[in-house]
Model the fold of this input.
Amino acid sequence: MKVTAEKNEKVANMIFASIYPLYLNRLVKNGRTKEELDQVIKWFTGYDQDTLQALIDEKVTFGTFFQKAKIHANAHLIKGVVCGYRIEEIEDEFELYKQCRRMEKLIDELARGRKMEKILRKV
Done:
């Protein structure tokens, strides 16, 4: 599938705090924890726990969430298909959408029971 400017804009305007509980519910159903979810998000974005919680409390958009993030140097190692989109084929002009899909890929791997060291791309 191909990302469009409209799709990118729609994701940019979504409130991170409204999606976070959906991520958490999925993980809890699969025997994972909030701490593991937060660990993955913090690794990917460079946020500490207080900053992550503040962004949730402030109800920032995904656009703001990723704009403030310091994406991990190994993020380029996150590859595969999420929601029908092959991450490595998403055009650079849709960087926000690519970062969102990368984070969802990490959460998906966590839900599927993958080991944390593999999820965090320890090379």
